[in-house]
Amino acid sequence: MNVLITGVTGFAGSHLADYLNDKGDIDVFGTKRRRSPLDNINSHVELTDCELTDYPSVHHVIDSVRPDKIFHLAAQSFVPQSWEAPEYTFQVNVFSTLNIMEAIRRIDPEIRLLVAGSSEEYGFVLPSECPVTEDQPLRPMSPYGVSKVSMDLLARQYVKSYGLKIVITRAFNHTGPRRGEVFATSTFAKQIAELEAGGGDPIIKVGNLAAQRDFTDVRDMVRAYWLALWNCDWGEPYNIGTGTDISMLQVLDTLLSFSDVHIKTEVDPSRLRPSDVPRLQSDSTKFRKLTGWKPEIPFNQTMKDLLDYWRERVK
């Protein structure tokens, strides 16, 4: 079986490559940009340069690889950056998705495609609307969230119009080793590791610690992606999450519980968003019934593994 992962050098993409290599009998291919760092690649991947916003490049890769399955994980995924660069966010997220679907339509409509959406599509959620089901109105509160809604709707249109085999996932927050340092869980872990190594004042800069999110370990998340393309219905959205929401203050406290450092927190205005989603908690009943998936890695283990990851890098 040939499997193509877009964004394979990134966080979720590299973990999915590890998972597929461990399964065996799968040839793993991945797209990258010429400037993409390869630090996250820990298992065998046939890498190919591809600018996903360029249709001829996308067509060439898919035509050459002839994948049975494509996991579209490449994205501009940092929500704050979407306010700074909304046009870029739409180019990367929406046009890349459109190019992949067009290439599949023209080359082989039997290719199975996973379009990785996000809980940020739900945006403003009232307390009475938690946990969130797939029927929840979409009220995105960032350009990133709007771009993911656009990807979602395009995928449904290509299923209805052309009969493509596309599964749409709406992953709630996921974290773990290799998470980029700009993301809250990782920036907390990196700052703690730096303080342990003797660097700087015992102060951790934070954003909104009251925000509540539903965190899944990335290794559980990529297993869910794999199950989605085997079991889920085309053109249907599926929430993936633990069903438990945790405040960012709890995240920080959990990380600190694995360390002896004593710190103070300082709010960094640059880490505050123009509009923030106060609470996101998933109801993934629909996905679990079809796939049998459930999270296996406890949150505390995820945080410990993330902190150990950064300890290795700031020595």
Structure in words:
The chain is α/β, with parallel strands linked by helices. It has two domains: 2-174 and 216-240, Rossmann fold, CATH 3.40.50; 176-213 and 244-281 and 292-313, UDP-galactose 4-epimerase, domain 1, CATH 3.90.25.10. The protein contains ten helices and 13 strands. The strands form four sheets. Strands 3-2-1-4-5-6-11 form a seven-stranded parallel beta sheet, sandwiched between helices. Strands 7-10 form a two-stranded parallel sheet.
Low-confidence stretches: none
Tell me the count of domains. 2
Q: Which CATH first-tier class of the largest domain would you pick?
A: Alpha Beta
Helix content: 40-55%
Helix and strand succession? Answer: EHEEHEHHEHEEHEEEHEEHEHH
CATH architecture term of the largest domain: 3-Layer(aba) Sandwich
Q: Write down how many β-strands occur, each being a DSSP E stretch of 2 or more residues.
A: 13
In whole angstroms, the N-to-C terminal distance is: 40 Å
What is the number of helical segments per DSSP (H or I, 4+ residues)? 10
At a glance:
The chain is an alpha/beta fold and 315 residues long. It has helices spanning 11-23, 55-65, 79-84, 86-107, 143-162, 184-196, 218-231, 248-256, 285-291, 299-313; strands spanning 2-6, 27-32, 46-49, 69-72, 112-118, 165-171, 174-175, 203-206, 212-213, 216-217, 237-240, 246-247, 264-267.
